[in-house]
Amino acid sequence: MEYKYPLLIWLGVLGGLVWALDYWKVFHKSKLFFPQQDHDLDWWKQALRTLFFVTGIAGWAFLSYSLMQPRKPQKFSPSNIEVNDIVLCIDVSRSMLAEDIKPNRLEVAKQRIREFVAMRPTDRISVIIFSEKVFTLLPLTTDPSLVDQILSEISIGFLGSGTNIGDGLGLSVARAANSETKNKVIVLLTDGVSNVGSMTPLQAAEEAKKHGIKVYTIGLGTDDDARIPVGNGIFGTQYQLIPGGSIDYKTLKQISDLTGGKFYPAKSDQGLKEILADIQKLEKTEIKVNHQIIYEELFYFYLLLGVGLLFGTESLKRLLLKDVV
Question: pTM of the predicted model, to two decimals?
């Protein structure tokens, strides 16, 4: 039960109080009258007066309640919100620990993708991660808090070494293809070249095209040599140097062109933020009409009941008790 104007009940309470004071003539001037000799008739009239007062107060109570406009939610009107399915396919190979983008590529990717997801609360999100092996970290879900938690917990190491872009994209396509949602998108983020796997990246892209799935590809990393931590030694953290510019831009662009998506090179934290903002704009959810709740309005019943009791009370009081205005 909901109330549209809950504070209006005090207007009805005030009206009932004024009516009660007038009913018992609290502020009326005293008048001299001769009491009737029939005491039984006096008792009968007093009982009627009390009964009419109770019915009058009940009438004001129903009238006061109706002023709040009670209503009961029935259902939501059909929504025309166009929901997207977005599969996030994220590289978790060891090179994603490279520190050419501070603090490292993976942490920057996680933070910016979390911000991207937070702007899409009506979409269904899935998370696929890949290195040598591929893994569905989260099936399609509409729970933004769960997606954010899963993204924040992504780590490096348990999927082996290597960069398996083909199988990672292939699994993403399979996840999206099983959905009945009209608009399906894959965001593929990697920092390397596919060097393992049973499916090539372009074979996976062909499958995406076949199912009408757009793939936005992002190559994350600078053109400079970078270092990744490999353990602790006598002199502190030990690093391995990896060459810069090792991202397979050509294949990533072919994937996006083939599927109707777009390729982006991300060479900085700010650059990745702007890229995801552009994807956000291109795949913006369109809302044709807002959700509307259909209510069952209940105040009519209480209004008619209250007015009926008050009208009946005043009419019978004047008729049976000979009250005059």
Answer: 0.65
